[in-house]
Every structure is written in structure tokens, then in C-alpha cells.
Amino acid sequence: MQGYELKINIYAENEAEVEETRQALASFINQHARQGRAVSATKITEAVKRWDKNPFVRNKIIEFFS
User: Fold this and answer.
1) Is 21:12 a contact under the CB 8 Å cutoff?
2) How far apart are CA 47 and CA 34, in angstroms?
3) Cα Rg for the chain, rounded, in angstroms?
4) What is the structure's pLDDT at 1?
5) Considering 5, 25, 56, 64, which has the largest number of Cβ atoms within 10 A of its Cβ?
6) What distance in Å separates the CA atoms of residue 44 and residue 1, rounded to the nearest whole number?
7) CB-based burial of residue 39 (10 Å sphere; 0-12 exposed, 13-18 middle, 19+ buried)?
8) Residue 8 DSSP label
9) Residue range 55-60: average pLDDT?
């Protein structure tokens, strides 16, 4: 597997928020990599597509973003 840059738009108040988010995501990916788990594009795609299939996860995500 190889690392690739991902550029997407995200809602934010300013560029600093976006940079903080970028750093948090990079840290999340790196932390899992250090522990031997790949946070791959395929796995992220699966997780995002299935977030609403588990009622507990769905409700917590909706609650968090509300």
C-alpha cells in the first residue's frame, strides 16, 4: 500500500480549523499505523457508507453533530 493525498472540502469557520482537522486525521491514521493497523481508503469508505447501519453508532453520530 502507498500513501496518497486526499483533498476534500469541509465546513469550517476558518483555515486554522481545517488545518487542525487535517492534523487530527493524520494523527489518527499514524497512531493506527504504529499499532500495525492500516487506515486504508477502502476501510474508510466502508465505515462511511455503513455508519447508519448500527443504531447505536448512528444515534451517537447524529447526537454528536447536532
Assistant:
1) yes
2) 21
3) 14
4) 86
5) 25
6) 15
7) middle
8) -
9) 96
Number of Cα atoms under 13 Å in the Cβ half of residue 19: 3
Q: What is the pLDDT of residues 1-13, one digit of tens each?
A: 898 999 999 999 9
Name the DSSP class of 52: T
CA angle in degrees (0–180, nearest 5) for 20-8-10? 55
Q: Residue 32, Cβ neighbours under 10 Å: how many?
A: 13
3-state secondary structure 13-34: CCHHHHHHHHHHHHHHHHHHHH
Residue closest to 44 by CA, chosen among 58, 28, 31: 28
